Records
---
Amino acid sequence: MSTNVVRAGGLAGIAAAVLFILSAIIKQVAPAEGIVGTGSEYLDRVVVILAYIAVIVAVLGIHALHKDNARYGALGTAGSVMTIAGYAIIAVVTVIATIQDFEYLLTIRLGGGILVLIGSLLLGVIIIRARLLPWWCAVLLIVAFPLGDVANAIFSSAENLLLALLWGSVGFALLSRRRAIPQPPETQSIRAG
């Protein structure tokens, strides 16, 4: 297992949380008016795109931590791949929609969302099964994304706050778990005498 990837995943999870919180603040200070045209709307899109990229790195960290665990297996890998692909699709669609608003992008974004939903569900179940990260990280993976749209009906930036809670928790768990992983002993040189 690569401790550097786990560490990078942990840092990326925390960065994603900060970026999602920043996006929630931007949306409250200067609500979007639909088509991207103001500086605050561009800033929000850039922040969200960076958050999605950080999430992808965090999922890579989860995968690196679990890949040698027998309980992770093919389902864990599939969950990671689907989650990464879903967030990548959403990020690319967000980039394209920032530059040029295309109506058909909503369908593609929905497909990315479905991949995130299924991938996060699989990944959450496997994390519970593998027991390398706290169970609540797995529960957040399972519920945060689907609850986002429902929560947005109550509070316009609730989805971003749920995602911040999810990825911040995962980031801290990856960083704390990385410290608990035994490091290989340093090689000692044998002196010829």
---
Amino acid sequence: MIRATIFMKISSAEFVKSAFERKHWVTGRLPEIAFLGRSNVGKSSLINSLLQRKGLARASNTPGRTQSINFFLINKRFYFVDLPGYGYAKVSKTKRSDWGKMAEEYLSAREELSLSIQLIDARHEPTDLDKQLNDWLIFNKKQHLAVATKSDKLSGNQLLSRLRDIRQSFENTNVIACSAETGKGRDELWKYILGAVEKR
């Protein structure tokens, strides 16, 4: 089996823009891979780990701060799209509603969307919001995948137990474990990403 890191050479990875409205989304019809999940689940860290670039996607020390949809052009061939995090209690209800509408509009309307990667913190059970998002992706027949982040924080047995819990909550969804710190799961995740890009 050919490992993803052998044939997935990152020749270029650049931040393109932040979009606060639909009219600001990128144009060009390239495939897009969306990353979505709760605030502080590690979206930026996972993106940087996949691209092996430090600081390309900026992780905020304040959960809930990212309010825009951020586009990154990879190898001038496809985009990584970082959606606003959800579920941070200290953000006002109005902002939470605005971010939810922004993300749902993108997920619903974006024809270039090839794969939605939902991130779940491996240390915790999926929340009601996590389950609602997964149900929405399934109901709307969106190509998707669940990734259990921060898996290096758990022992082997703890991780297996948590993955079983996530799979029970996310029926009909593939679930893999990843770690931005150790690179665990990175090759497997790239296989899903490249498979989705090739289908476009």
---
Amino acid sequence: MLEPDGKLRMVISNQPRSIGPIYKGQSFGYAGGSRPGIIFFNDEETENGGLTFTGQRMPDGRAQASSGFSFDQFNQDQVLYFQYSDNNGQRRIGFTIADRASVDIYDAIARRDTILRMPTGAARDSALRDWANPGGVPMFAPRVYLGRTTSRAAMIDLSDPNGKPRPRLMVDSLGTTSLEFLDAEGKVTARLPQR
């Protein structure tokens, strides 16, 4: 769907005709052909969310499926999303709220691609670490997760600004409830009920 001035507002497509990322009307990042569904665009013709889905039985009989409904930070990637993934019965279903660095996605991808063209080694590895943490802030950090894990537990994670879960409320597949407090390395520092 186009606005009267010809700018994209929404694209609905099958997989072969699906588009790659678009920033201010220009393709960037990676080619299309991988995400059937609906992609939304802001007033500047930059992608700002979408609804995508897949699902099939593989030749060996395993089932694989996924779907997602996401909303993007302005000139960045998704910060609010619902996701379902299924790998032959190993299902993860949830709702995530995330932080994204205040870095323009077009510039970030261009810088990443430049770094990836560097020879492998310590300098490239260091540049990639710096790229992933602009100004000491992670490019992406999940902050809230509410969902069902692949082990069939219902879980709420509240994470610190680095995306590390700190309190975790869970009801496991057997119905056992727990509240855990984790440190920045993921070690449980306190648990209720105590074991």
